[in-house]
Amino acid sequence: MKLLVTGGAGYVGSVVTALLLEAGHEVTVLDVLSAGHSDAVPDGASFVEGDVHGVGRVLDPSFDAVLHFAGRSLVGESVQDPGPYWHTNVGGTLALVEAMREHGVGRLVFSSTAAVYGDPPSQAPLRESDPAAPTNPYGAGKLAVDHLLAGWARAHGLGAVSLRYFNVAGAHGGFGERHDPETHLIPNLLKVASGEVEHASVHGTDYPTPDGTAVRDYLHVRDLADAHVRALERCVPGRHRVLNLGSGGGYSVREVLAAVRRITGHPVPVVDGPRRPGDPAVLVAANDRAREELGWRPSRGLDTIVADAWGFVRGRQEEGTAP
Ligand SMILES: NC(=O)c1ccc[n+]([C@@H]2O[C@H](COP(=O)([O-])OP(=O)(O)OC[C@H]3O[C@@H](n4cnc5c(N)ncnc54)[C@H](O)[C@@H]3O)[C@@H](O)[C@H]2O)c1
Ligand SMILES: O=c1ccn([C@@H]2O[C@H](COP(=O)(O)OP(=O)(O)O[C@H]3O[C@H](CO)[C@@H](O)[C@H](O)[C@H]3O)[C@@H](O)[C@H]2O)c(=O)[nH]1
């Protein structure tokens, strides 16, 4: 297929692009480089530097589908300054589906998020049918796009899939997380192991969980990327589907810390701090729908996630490209 990947110079988009190229697809990446890196666009993809609002200049009827990763994704920033989040994540997606309609490009895979579920009342694994009640503009905008795509599929025959990622981590094929600022747990712990910073923070030790720290569902980015390839192949015209992407199991911050210490062999000192505003106690995916509809099964556990992310950090250190 001939594919457009928006945000393909970012973390998830670069890994998915690499996998799409491996599968024999032709890929054009559109990225404004506000958070991504031009050297993260895999060799073999065409690269256009530009904003998703201007996607009409890139798209033409020869494209078969779009994978849409471009967006802003700092939850705290979205609370402080919501305007850019609605502009990029919602307005940018509207511009994209309008251009797709104009050029007759009928399939879309979208990066949604577990943040649409907000702070769930129960700690049970979350199903797609559970109420969506986002607690910040980032999650609200992603949920708005899920609704936008449902209406677009009904009205204009788009075949779309919203993939609600839980916590993506790990690295694949030389591509990994290079966010600045970095807010995610595993790369922050690895910054300590690599000597870039002296200690990490544990955000909250008084949650109603077995060890008092928050529990999340960590999914290897390679497993996540595999789900995208499968979702793309299964886009049905006129239908919008929502699928959770998680491993189906959870680890606390302290359990992740123990894995990082074991795998890196570094003591990784941490300082216990207060809760980060808006963080729920437990977010774990029920992933049955993705398993059934995509024939997908995540196969890489926490140790592989940490080992691969660590390999990526070490590789960049050895090349002299990090920090
Ligand atoms: N990483 C996670 O754990 C996670 C979890 C849930 C959902 N998501 C979603 O997945 C997607 C990818 O996440 P990521 O971690 O790879 O983020 P990222 O920041 O690494 O990548 C996003 C890319 O989009 C680009 N971009 C931003 N605004 C743009 C615009 N207006 N036009 C064109 N390009 C633009 C950035 O330069 C960047 O390269 C995002 O939409 C994010 O909200 C990520
Ligand atoms: O230095 C750190 C960073 C994080 N945490 C904690 O670790 C857990 C995981 O945090 P993080 O890696 O930042 O992920 P989340 O806040 O769970 O959010 C991610 O996962 C969401 C879906 O679950 C996505 O919507 C977001 O984009 C993505 O950042 C949380 O309990 C944090 O409070 C720490 O204790 N110390």
TrEMBL record:
**According to its UniProt record, which reaction does this protein catalyse?**
UDP-alpha-D-glucose = UDP-alpha-D-galactose
Its organism's taxonomic lineage begins at: Bacteria, Bacillati, Actinomycetota, Actinomycetes, Streptosporangiales
The enzyme's E.C. designation: 5.1.3.2
- Residues forming the NAD-dependent epimerase/dehydratase domain are 4-246
InterPro entries linked to this entry = Epimerase_deHydtase, NAD(P)-bd_dom_sf, Sc_DH/Rdtase_CS, UDP_G4E
Q: In which pathway does it act?
A: Carbohydrate metabolism; galactose metabolism
Q: Per the entry, which co-factors are needed?
A: NAD(+)
> Under what name is this protein listed?
UDP-glucose 4-epimerase
Q: Which SUPFAM superfamilies does the record match to this protein?
A: NAD(P)-binding Rossmann-fold domains (SSF51735)
Alphabetized PROSITE patterns for the sequence: ADH_SHORT
